[in-house]
Design brief:
The complex is a heterodimer of chains A (71) and B (157). Helix content of chain A is 58%, strand content 0%. Chain A is elongated, with a radius of gyration of 19 Å. The N and C termini of chain A lie far apart (39 Å). The relative contact order of chain A is 0.09. Helices cover 80% and strands 0% of the residues of chain B. Chain B has five helices and no strands. Chain B starts with a helix and ends with a helix. The chains are: A mainly alpha (71), B mainly alpha (157). The interface between A and B is large, with 38 and 52 residues.
Chain lengths: 71, 157
């Protein structure tokens, strides 16, 4: 389970998890990095969505994107 | 109660950051990985800010469609690079130096387009305040990419 999922569970009212600090640390010790990477990935996806919507509003495909398969 | 949890968790994360040797191969500490991830996150945030600003200014008529398309094409490349770099960086501590070089090449592949856009892609923006803002955000992206590159070069050697 990743850290953001655990935070979401706690915010949703999950009961206290004992030894939570240890639980929060990944085996490779990359808890903080994982949170950053999750944020960056979500932000990049939102960026691509906004860009896609702008090009679609102009009736153009996003340059470099794979063309949609025709029906 | 939730606030207490949050505070405890924040202390936990800070404590985790200080313990940098568990399970990480020699030469790649948690701190290094966190710096790389933070630099990628900075690039992602600046790139989103650029995209939102350019689209809003295009709607307001201060950035023509052609320039908006050029900038958004670069922003799309940067976003793609962020996603690839993010996916690859998750396994960074387990990678060989050669594999770590792949993350570096993903970052380096978009440095050129960002530099080109800054030099040649903004000529159509006539409003000086808009041009200054776009330039400022693109320079932040450029700085984030350069930071990631510097850390990755050190981490892959």
């Amino acid at each position: 389970m990743d850290p953001l999922t655990i935070i979401a569970l706690i915010n949703a009212g999950a009961p206290l998890i004992s030894n939570i600090i240890t639980f929060f640390r990944h085996k490779d010790g990359t808890v903080t990095a994982v949170v950053y990477l999750d944020d960056a990935d979500g932000t990049a996806t939102a960026t691509q969505t906004a860009i896609g919507q702008w090009f679609a509003s102009k009736g153009k495909p996003v340059p470099g994107a794979a063309p949609l398969a025709s029906a | 109660m939730k606030l207490l949890f949050t505070v405890v968790l924040m202390f936990g994360l800070v404590a985790c950051q200080k313990n940098t040797t568990v399970g990480t191969p020699a030469g790649v500490s948690d701190a290094t990985l966190t710096k790389i991830a933070a630099a990628i996150d900075d690039v992602a945030k600046s790139n989103k800010a650029l995209t939102d600003f350019v689209i809003a200014q295009n709607a307001a008529g201060t950035i023509p469609d052609a320039d908006t398309a050029n900038i958004l094409t670069v922003a799309n490349k940067v976003a793609g690079a962020v996603k690839t770099a993010t996916a690859t960086t998750r396994a960074f501590t387990q990678m060989t130096p050669a594999q770590r070089g792949n993350v570096l090449s993903v970052i380096q592949a978009v440095i050129g387009p960002v530099n080109d856009a800054l030099t040649n892609g903004l000529a159509g923006i006539k409003n000086s305040a808009t041009l200054a803002k776009v330039t400022q955000i693109m320079q932040a992206i450029q700085a984030g990419l350069n930071t990631a590159q510097t850390i990755l070069v050190a981490a892959t050697n």
